[in-house]
Predict the structure.
Amino acid sequence: MDITTRIHDSFAKQGLMTTLGASLGSVAPGAVEILLVPSPAISQQHGFVHAGAVSAIADSAAGYSALSLMPEDAGVLTTEFKINLVAPAVGELIIARGRVVKSGHTLTLTQSDVFAVSNGQERLVALLTATMMTLRGREGVSD
């Protein structure tokens, strides 16, 4: 199965991404985008996209970037992440761009940059670094 189909099939199984209204953007080996259109359902008390929603799409983009380089019979699981929220997540679109920093046999280091898009301009709102674990013999398993 090609990597794009594999990522799309796995993403479709994530109930949280459906609940948030997130969708997949570009998918390439070692790099995956997740898109989120802000709505009141995912906002916090000041009207910004909630940090939990920002963290969720950043984590999933990072996880799928790692999965894109793993063997077909493997799944991925987040073992840790750190996120820096650097600006309020407000705009017409929130984009999490996950990428692999270093791919390993068992552990993969990833990063997601999260941007808010307003009037065609992107502004960095969060930076996530994460460690992903390869789960052997767990095809289709994702974080």
Residues 3-135 form a domain with the Thiol Ester Dehydrase; Chain A fold (CATH 3.10.129.10).
